[in-house]
Amino acid sequence: MLNEETLRRYILEALPGSEVVVRDTTGTGDHFEAHVVSPAFAGKTMVQQHKLVYAPLQPWLASGELHALALKTYSPEQWQKLGPR
């Protein structure tokens, strides 16, 4: 079964220098949400950003082990514009 830390590690390996928070939304190890702030997202559309996050997770997505991953992605500039949360 997948867990938050495994997904976080794979995303960080693909996007070094990113801030990544992953949460299991159902407790079943197959539905997650991730918030990713990465310099690699600068100048990219949301679709392009999401593709960068999904890329290292393809084996789990293809097998169905990872059934759902809700993403919130931001470049550092986008994140800064959102202000304090």
TrEMBL record:
PANTHER family, per database record: BOLA TRANSCRIPTION REGULATOR, BOLA-LIKE PROTEIN 1
Family of the protein in this entry: Belongs to the BolA/IbaG family.
Pfam families from the UniProt entry: BolA
Top-rank taxon: Bacteria
Cross-referenced InterPro entries: BolA, BolA-like_sf, BolA/IbaG_stress_morph_reg
Organism annotation: Stigmatella aurantiaca (strain DW4/3-1)
Identification of the protein by name: BolA family protein
